[in-house]
Amino acid sequence: MRSDLATRYGQDRLPRYTSYPTAPHFNPRIGEVDYRQWLKSLSPRQSASIYLHVPFCRSMCWYCGCHTSVTRREDPIAVYCSGLRTEAHLVAETIGHRQPISHVHFGGGTPTIMTPETFADLVGALRYSYFVLPGAEIAVEIDPRTLIEPMAEALGFSGVNRASLGVQSFDPAVQRVINRQQSFEQTARCADMLRKSGIRRLNFDLLYGLPLQTVRSCLDTVAKCIELRPDRFSVFGYAHIPSFKKHQRKIDEDALPDSNERHLQSEAIAESLINAGYVRIGFDHFALPSDELAVAKREGRLRRNFQGYTNDCADTLIGLGASAIGRMPQGFVQNAVAPRDYLANVAEDCLATVKGYEFTEDDRFRADLIERVMCDMTVDLSRIARSHGRSPETAVVDRLRLESLIAEGAVTVDEDRISVSEGAEFLVRIVASAFDAHLARSAATHCRAV
């Protein structure tokens, strides 16, 4: 474990590289007209994925970095879900055929904030407008504190076969200062309800780097989670960006762990999960050896998208809902962020796209480089350069950064193959940034590299 490297590089602010180029580079020059053209060009022979964003919660967690808002009323949720159904139909109508769908993901916010009947209707609308493949993964993010049995039953009835449960931390002191009180018993009850409803593939989401969090409390949380034996864990570092999310100002910055402590927490969680039989996937996911994600890693098919590491091989992601980002073969598109603006667009039978990004050939080259090093911890520059008609000498943008990592022993070079050294996987985003041609001219504020 290289704590010296965590101290040296931990303050760097870098993208998570769930996309390339990253969202701060999207611009309003790409809009509805472009998106319509791109949708019409989709092939019925290639499957796509769908992401639906539900931007509502019952309470605000102060660490949250998502586009969401708090509501106690049901009407705004019902109106919004009606808009989702309308947008799904508009997009399908624009495509012009029943597009095959291999993955569906409900995110937020809290997608299960809608009523069970509304959720079933929404999935039914998707199945009507698109050809959701028989083996498609249908996943939903869940707040265990608010899931009720009728909703669990509706999820199973609707064909949901994977659920991601937000846990973050079971430490009561941490929970108090992040405004998220959630007991182990609530989480266990939620997992039990889901499994009884036929949803047996469960993911748990954990955070490290939270205020008052310690290595000991991280390990206590992991030990409790392991008792419930989820298939996967996502282990993210808390991104404190109060200039972007004002509610994060409620968190006392003096209570946040420093880069070295964050690294110790991350590695303690990783070691505990590996000892419990989980396989490390990339730098922040873990899965049981039989899980599809672990299989994809072994077979070299691991991908990275806005949800993190995935076995989803579709090159097209249709984003539905306020702030949702879609990925087309030609580039990225993003919907209006504010639900009011989003609903106003779809009410006029317009697509809600307000900005995006059209790929250049250089972007495609660098996206491949970054995805492979993020997924495999190694990248063959010659192989990828050949596939793009490029020279491997053009791959590295920030040579000084890479040479520094090599000198530290964090990276090794064998001819044109660049590899992250064992024990330095937590620096993979820094390695990826050496291929990023946009980073130097970006004014965006990113999260800590460690």
Notes on the structure:
This protein is α/β, with parallel strands linked by helices. It has two domains: 1-21 and 360-450, Orthogonal Bundle (Arc Repressor Mutant, subunit A), CATH 1.10.10.920; 22-325, Alpha-Beta Barrel (TIM Barrel), CATH 3.20.20.70. Helix content is 37%, strand content 22%. It has 15 helices and 21 strands. It has helices at 3-9, 32-40, 75-95, 116-129, 149-157, 172-178, 184-196, 215-228, 259-275, 292-298, 339-347, 361-376, 381-387, 399-408, 428-433, and strands at residues 13-14, 48-54, 56-57, 69-70, 100-108, 131-142, 162-168, 201-208, 232-237, 279-281, 285-287, 303-305, 308-310, 317-320, 325-328, 331-335, 353-358, 378-380, 411-414, 417-420, 447-448. The strands form six sheets. A nine-stranded mixed sheet has the order 10-11-9-8-7-6-5-2-14, with helices on both faces. Strands 15-16-17 form a three-stranded antiparallel sheet, covered by helices on one side. Helix 3 (75-95) packs parallel to helix 4 (116-129), helix 3 packs across helix 11 (339-347) and helix 8 (215-228) packs parallel to helix 9 (259-275). The longest helix has 21 residues, at 75-95. The chain is globular and about 60 Å long.
